[in-house]
Write a structure and sequence with these properties.
Helix content is 44%, strand content 15%. The chain contains 13 helices and twelve strands.
Amino acid sequence: MHPTRKAAVTAAALLVMATASGCESGAGATASHRSSAKPGCPTALSRAKQAVKKAEAVNAPWRGPTTGPKAVHGKSVVYIAQTLTNPGVAGVARGVQEAAKIVGWQARTLNGEGTPDGLRAAFKRALRLKPDGIVISGFDPGTAAAEVKKANSEGIPLIGWHAAPAPGPSKDPQLFSNITSRVEDVAKISADWIIARSNGRAGVVLFTDATVPFAKRKSDLIKKELATCSGTKLLSYTNMPIPQVNSRSIGEVRSLLSRFGRKWTYSAAINDLYFQHAAPALRAAGKDGAGAPFNIGAGDGDPSAFQRVNGKEFQAATVPEPLSEQGWQIIDEFNRAFSGAPESGYVAPVHIATAANSGGALSWDSEGYRQAYRKIWGD
């Protein structure tokens, strides 16, 4: 068992004891009210609670690839980041750098600065470097359609991270593989957590970035799953592009508090970053970091998100991507592309991290992924 999860097992055991005694973990003074309230959707609630229990399990044995081509030598890759202020994008970049060093490749990170012009400029620069492979991280490849086409024509394999709606290979855009958990799973479990924790009675604000198709689809799916519970009301579907979150969050949160007041009891966002910037406004309004609105980030589970969750500071849960692990997977997928092998087909399972089950950890990755990949590569 991963060392950080030993503590999590103990915490989970305590959670079970607390639940058995009629107290919901993290519920505070409102626990008895929520547990005694008549559920707003008995069937959906039962299904949501079962799904959440499974997703909160703390053991994560490696279920990814164990075979593949040995590492080729002397390759170079360029990682184009949508913006390095997005902790998820930055976390995967570090994983790519770490894994590339293991196989003796050169890996360079370029910052697209979160704007279409910046992304196109970064892609043009990447092409000038004539790498063996390019990573499109956290942005729509259509933003740099001409550059993507040029890379395809030059035979440069492209791998996405959150660059297309689904994991695996893509024909339009042409990607050798897109690395992500299944957006349907992440969206569903995020909404199910709200349904389960609120006992089917919640007033929800949903934050999205409609400029990124992957993010917009995720939030649409969260909205769809929330609608399965008649007692769960979507108060607001707020579009706030990730590059603008820093400047707009305080104003948006103040407006939402003014409009909805105590009706706003839960939030979901397509990225944990929203709650980093929402916290000052909630704090200024006199809200308790461990109280309502209870917030869940439907990605990416970066260290700062875990710190907020563990400290009960305006974020109650995250559905983390295994960021470092996915950086290693990107290098493995490139190695398969360079070797003429198909992509691995691996998709990381969905997980929910809370203060009760994280064991104080600041990340979530499958156990033994580094050893598995090193064995494949012949390191």
